[in-house]
């Protein structure tokens, strides 16, 4: 094994047999390594031995093999050397896929494991890597997480080149540049950086490239591996890198001057810089009339507040500030809680934890029964808990409103943040009442204002405040009124459309 590792960085041998043995040893004689030996006749009494090496399941080389087997030289081609024959095969014989010259074992293994077929000839120190990748993956489908009523129904897949082609279909401009790299010492995962050259800021682009280049990890299996490595601050629950499985969202982000990061093997692409208000925006906002989109967006901000504060307000008011309630409502709540043996905080914790367990169970269970179990479980457990006197009916209503409001947000990862912070605010409410909630909100705002995403303030365009960007923050103005791109982060070209 030590000899194999030492030979990896060396050049190839002129002996076809030695090269094939080295390839097999380097891959541990794996069963999916396929070798097709061929013989190319140059004349009646002269031939050159060769072989095609490929990985079963990654390559489809039927057309290329047929071309090689039908390669019979005549005339001056009888006197070809091995190097000349390899060049002839590269320029004339092989007409399918891309072809690259390789002269080292490390390059050979990298190409072979990426789906290329390797052509080796006896007496030749070079080999050809032929693009015969066989893409086997699920077809383009509608995204499950970020679905829309009106808009494109296609979502990214696990195949990187399919994803880049979907972006090319939406942005047919030569300034859409895509740069490839491999990240992961062992997995060598293909990663593509996409941006619109004449819009994106060079500072942001260089920062993205630098952070990606500094990643030193053995495996990249999903885009979150990269997200955690490149985000500005680790000790925060707020997402500072936007992720989506919708090509139209990525295309819109590129047109705003952002940078997209696409990772092979996952349908979720990353978009940076990411702003807090961006997580309240849906692609459907721009496919519906402006007045309706504005109403829905305001509803999302309201749902954010309800999901974050409803349980803590209930705990604070019923525990410390009963005088804030109308007398009739106070009597009703008091009568409901008369037989409940736990304080409001414990009551809320019990219901919230129970709902989180039901939520996770519905996600992990088979789809055919997961949804029914979550709905039936919530109704049955809630009703049984009220009848048993463990919780009050008002608490069931509060938890239900909180859970439903959490689902209104289009960004799933922001919903996770709300679930975490909600428990902290409930603790503050149980300890200090409304004063504790106020302190928690102040600390939360200070923390959010201190966040950044690739050098851009996370709370832009609210802090710092940009008046022109308010056309697409809480409200969504008609597209005919949005003449410039966002000023929240630097760009080369701010003009979106000419004024009429």
Q: How would you characterize this protein structure?
A:
- The chain is α+β, with helices and mostly antiparallel strands.
- Helix content is 44%, strand content 13%.
Question: Which key terms come to mind for this protein?
Answer:
single chain, 500 residues, alpha+beta, five-stranded antiparallel beta sheet, 44% helix, 13% strand, disordered N terminus
How is the secondary structure organized here?
Layout: H1 2-7, H2 16-26, E1 33-43, E2 46-55, H3 62-69, H4 82-93, E3 99-102, H5 105-112, E4 117-121, E5 127-130, H6 160-170, E6 176-183, E7 189-196, H7 202-213, H8 223-230, E8 242-244, H9 247-255, E9 259-263, E10 269-272, H10 290-319, H11 327-336, H12 344-364, H13 367-388, H14 393-408, H15 412-432, H16 434-449, E11 452-453, E12 456-457
Antiparallel strand pairs: 1-2, 2-4, 3-5, 4-5, 6-7, 7-9, 8-10, 9-10, 11-12
Helix pairs in contact: 6-9, 10-14, 10-15, 12-13, 12-14, 12-15, 15-16
* Radius of gyration, in angstroms, nearest whole number: 30 Å
Number of strands: 12
Category from helices, strands and their pairing: alpha+beta
Largest sheet, if any? Answer: 5 strands, antiparallel
Order of helices and strands: HHEEHHEHEEHEEHHEHEEHHHHHHHEE
* Strand arrangement, major sheet: 1-2-4-5-3
Query: Which percent band covers the strand fraction?
Result: 5-15%
Q: Which consecutive residue ranges, at least 5 long each, have pLDDT under 50?
A: 1-8, 72-76
Average pLDDT rating: 84
Shape: elongated
Residue share in helix:
40-55%
The helix count comes to 16
End-to-end CA span: 72 Å
